[in-house]
Amino acid sequence: DAGVIQSPRHEVTEMGQEVTLRCKPISGHNSLFWYRQTMMRGLELLIYFNNNVPIDDSGMPEDRFSAKMPNASFSTLKIQPSEPRDSAVYFCASSLRVRGVGLETGVAKNIQYFGAGTRLSVL
Amino acid sequence: RKEVEQDPGPFNVPEGATVAFNCTYSNSASQSFFWYRQDCRKEPKLLMSVYSSGNEDGRFTAQLNRASQYISLLIRDSKLSDSATYLCVVIFSGYSTLTFGKGTMLLVSP
């Protein structure tokens, strides 16, 4: 399996420009997550989708951020207009969501697999 | 109060040492627990899940203490390649999203 694939790996842009980050989840996974990681705030969940439907976008910082998942194999995170404070590493992760989250010996549910990330610098 | 807390470190240990990290969580109804490992400039990767009875994977042992609301990770016979940031991860009751601690940095020196 190729794993979660993100593009681009690095993006350098100027303030005010539109930025689009892309993600291809692991085939067969039904949940997709977008995270942002900075030194100050650590790893923050921005939004997640289940079966291509956005479930929780409460982590999206503001209206400049939007995410879509038009099909099970593709998602985008868009920032328009970008600002220097958006500079961070953006990770996409996917998982096979199983109902009844719980702790069972020998069974781990809802494990997330991360892509390599997009390192965004907004100048 | 932060939901998942970790000592940021860094923990500096020599090769062969035993080192332990703790992580506390705020929600007593939390249901699933994991340790992820993140190498410098890489993505987080699952190290191990944490089961209620505790579990071991080679040199790594994970424990859960529900009464005190913490999980621990013990690394025996540290290797240089163990140098990384270790992220504590919790799934709170009723959700399938992961809440990450900010991580504990481990540096293993020759």
Protein architecture, described:
Chain A is 0% helix and 50% strand. Chain A has strands spanning 5-7, 10-13, 19-24, 31-38, 42-50, 53-56, 65-71, 74-79, 88-95, 113-114, 118-122. In chain A, strands 2, 4, 5, 6, 9, 10 and 11 form a seven-stranded mixed sheet that branches. A four-stranded antiparallel sheet of chain A has the order 1-3-8-7, with no helix packed on it. Chain A is globular and about 40 Å long. The N and C termini of chain A lie far apart (36 Å). With 110 residues, chain B is an all-beta fold. Chain B is 0% helix and 55% strand. In chain B, the strands form two sheets. In chain B, strands 2, 4, 5, 9, 10 and 11 form a six-stranded mixed sheet that branches. Chain B is globular. Chain A binds chain B through residues 31, 33, 42-43, 45, 48, 50, 56, 91, 95, 97, 101-106, 108-117, and chain B through 31-34, 42-46, 49, 51-53, 64, 87, 91, 93-103.
Précis, in short:
By secondary structure, chain A is mainly β. Chain A is 0% helix and 50% strand.
Secondary structure elements and pairings:
The complex is a heterodimer of chains A (123) and B (110).
Chain A: E1 5-7, E2 10-13, E3 19-24, E4 31-38, E5 42-50, E6 53-56, E7 65-71, E8 74-79, E9 88-95, E10 113-114, E11 118-122
Parallel strand pairs in A: 2-11
Antiparallel strand pairs in A: 1-3, 3-8, 4-5, 4-9, 5-6, 7-8, 9-10, 9-11
Chain B: E1 4-6, E2 11-14, E3 19-25, E4 32-38, E5 44-50, E6 55-57, E7 60-65, E8 70-75, E9 84-91, E10 98-100, E11 104-109
Parallel strand pairs in B: 2-11
Antiparallel strand pairs in B: 1-3, 3-8, 4-5, 4-9, 6-7, 7-8, 9-10, 9-11
State the end-to-end distance of chain A: 36 Å
Ranges of chain B where pLDDT stays below 50 over 5 or more residues in a row are none
Q: Give the strand tally of chain A.
A: 11
**Which structural class should the secondary elements of chain A be placed in?**
mainly beta
In this structure, how is the largest beta sheet of chain A organized? 7 strands, mixed
Largest interface: A-B, 27 and 27 residues
Order of helices and strands of chain A: EEEEEEEEEEE
Tell me the series of helices and strands of chain B, N- to C-terminal.
EEEEEEEEEEE
Radius of gyration of chain A: 15 Å
Mean pLDDT of chain B: 91
